[in-house]
Design a protein that fits this description.
This protein is mainly beta. It folds into three domains: about 1-50, no CATH class; about 75-265 and about 310-350, Glycosyl hydrolase domain, family 43 (Tachylectin-2, Chain A), CATH 2.115.10.20; about 380-485 and about 520-550, Jelly Rolls, CATH 2.60.120.560. The chain is about 5% helix and about 45% strand. It is built from three helices and 37 strands. It has helices at about 485-495, 500-510, 510-520, and strands at about 1-5, 10-15, 40-45, 80-90, 95-105, 115-120, 130-135, 140-150, 165-175, 185-190, 200, 215-225, 230-235, 240-245, 250-260, 265-275, 275-285, 290-295, 300-310, 315-320, 330-340, 345-350, 350, 355-360, 365-370, 380-390, 395, 410-415, 420-425, 430-435, 440, 445-450, 455-460, 465-470, 475-480, 530-535, 540-550. Strands 26-37-28-33-34-35 form a six-stranded antiparallel sheet, with no helix packed on it. Strand 4 (about 80-90) and strand 5 form a beta hairpin. The longest helix is centred in the C-terminal third of the chain and has 10 residues, at about 485-495.
């Protein structure tokens, strides 16, 4: 454990694995906010590696950031360390803010000690600039998940200038670091009056005391019809609590709502059915993305339909949607955690690509559809178009050129013919549509999918570590990790000092690690190939459009 003090007062406390032999990578502590003050580093146990710590304006390996072997090239990942849940997604005056669960000091999660809010901004949701960490652990606990809002009406009284106040609402996870020993999980707020560049924790924290053990992950929205803040908080045992507040400082619990697997990381928002603004429904979901559709009056959620599957992939968790998107835009934009270990890298995990959510009529009732945001066109490179091709039985390569990188946005529409099954193989990942079953398969994942007027449509985003599949205009969303297996995962967690073995992790976090252990065929990174196939007959490729994607880090 390392303690970092300024003028004799501890301001940071974190756990780090210090190398005693060959270094894997360097990590850094940003001290720019303390310029001109006296800083002291103290370590609990003597370690010769402690002497290697030094102060500079850069760190070894910085020149290779975003160029690493497994670095996603159009998905966000942190410069150093672990990231998981997206937090505090909010738009303000031309900037999208992405906060996220972050261990800045190592490859593993270290939920117990280091959990911090990382921070990145973007003007287009594509190109991201990582800022210094926004909110750090303190004597109330480590900084667990939450949300952020723009306090347009200054309900908190925090605004001090022309800029509207950005308020972060988060869980203070008491007892997860030595600093907060024996303290419970409570809810706190921090605010910024300089567009999120610096944050001040509210002196009256916590603003919500413990309701149930381990209550956490507050999602806050402004409710126009009742003119107040609504907070959805995970309580315990798959139950959410609905609170109201006039100022984000005092909360009142009005109702509880529960169902099986409604576990942590709540989200609440409205969507119009088929774009009809006079016909809206409320959506409630938790970490795994399964959602309920219903009605909400500002105090109580009443479901029409429960537990609908949103994603069919193996690496989706803890998604959140943006607050404060401009009315003239009107989209509901979501980012999820991409649960993807990055072996041998100085960073670990990533975010999935931003998607736009819509609510559309289907035979089963209203359902959420997901599609990549249109801003992806900003990174289009070369493109190829193929039309009206008969896919004979067998496998057929589409691109005559073969690219080492192979980052693509692929759209393909197939007309069902005499074949029993058809699909694509992209970088050894097979996507198969079984005609008789009317099911779409990718690796071990599958979902039911009926043809649209005799056709099946695919949209596929291909990055180094992911393949995100959207079918029939987003009726199915299937993000797939493409390079890890159980043996590698077990070795990695052992090597990098996790507190759990694989069995224990699966029991504690089955919704996360069961995904990780389910895929067992590693894919060779760097191989780029697009193949169409048909089995048991012919299939018609109505149209395929392939856009090469350029790196967002250039």
């Amino acid at each position: 454990m390392i303690h970092f003090s300024i003028d004799g007062k501890i301001v940071r406390e974190f756990d780090v694995s210090l190398a005693t032999g060959e270094l894997d990578f360097w990590i850094f502590l940003d001290v720019s906010e303390f310029k001109g003050k006296k800083a002291t580093l103290q370590i609990d146990e003597e370690n010769e590696a402690f002497d290697k710590i030094y102060q500079a304006n850069s760190y070894p390996g910085e020149e290779n950031i975003y160029k690493e072997h497994l670095r996603p090239q159009f998905h966000f990942s942190s410069r150093r360390g672990w990231n998981n849940d997206p937090n505090g997604l909010v738009y303000y005056d031309g900037e999208y803010h992405l906060f996220y669960q972050h261990n800045p000091y190592g490859w593993s999660a270290s939920f117990s000690v280091n959990t911090t809010w990382g921070h990145a901004i973007s003007k287009d949701l594509i190109h991201w600039k990582e800022l210094r960490s926004a909110i750090h652990p303190d004597n109330l606990g480590t900084i667990y998940s939450g949300s952020a809002v723009i306090d347009k009406l200054n309900t908190t009284g925090f605004q001090s200038g022309e800029e509207k106040t950005l308020v972060c609402i988060y869980t203070s996870a008491g007892g997860q670091n030595p600093w907060s020993k024996d303290k419970p999980f409570t809810q706190s707020i921090a605010y910024s009056n300089d567009r999120g560049r610096t944050f001040t924790k509210y002196s009256g924290n916590p603003v919500q005391e413990e309701v149930e053990p381990l209550n956490r992950d507050p999602k806050v929205i402004w409710h126009e019809s009742t003119n107040q803040w609504i907070i959805v908080l995970y309580l315990d045992k798959d139950v959410m609590g609905f609170f109201t507040s006039k100022d984000l400082k005092s909360w009142q619990l009005h109702s509880r709502y529960g169902r099986k697997n409604l576990h942590e990381c709540p989200e609440l928002f409205q969507l119009s059915i088929d774009g009809n603004q006079q016909n809206k429904k409320w959506i409630l979901y938790a970490g795994n993305g399964r959602y309920d559709i219903g009605q909400f009056d500002g105090k109580k959620f009443i479901p029409d339909t429960k537990g609908i599957i949103f994603n069919y992939g193996n690496c989706f968790y803890a998604s959140q949607t943006f607050n404060n998107i401009p009315e003239e835009d009107g989209r509901r934009i979501q980012i999820a955690w991409g649960v993807i270990p990055m072996p041998g890298m100085p960073f670990n995990q990533q975010m999935l690509f931003p998607v736009e959510l819509t609510l559309r009529t289907t035979e089963e009732g209203p359902r959420i559809f997901a599609q990549p945001i249109n801003e992806i066109k900003k990174i289009y490179g070369k493109n190829w178009i193929f039309q009206d091709k008969v896919v004979e039985e067998g496998q057929h390569s589409i691109l005559e050129e073969n690219y080492d990188e192979g980052f693509y946005d692929i759209s393909a529409e197939f007309e069902i013919g005499s074949a029993k099954r058809f699909g694509l193989i992209i970088n050894n990942i097979q996507i198969t549509y079984e005609i008789k079953e009317q099911k779409l398969y990718c690796q071990e994942r599958y979902g039911s999918l009926k043809p649209m007027e005799g056709n099946i449509k695919f949209r596929i985003l291909v990055d180094r570590t992911t393949l995100e599949l959207f079918a029939n205009d987003g009726q199915i969303y299937m993000p797939i990790r493409t390079h890890i297996n159980i043996t590698e995962l077990s070795e990695l967690y052992s090597k990098f000092g996790t507190d759990f073995n694989i069995t224990e992790i699966s029991e504690l976090y089955p919704f996360k690690l069961n995904y990780a252990v389910s895929y067992t065929k590693p894919v060779i990174i760097g191989k780029s190939d697009i193949i169409v196939f048909s089995e048991g007959g012919i299939t018609k490729l109505v149209k395929m459009e392939v856009h090469e994607l350029t790196s967002i880090w250039h």
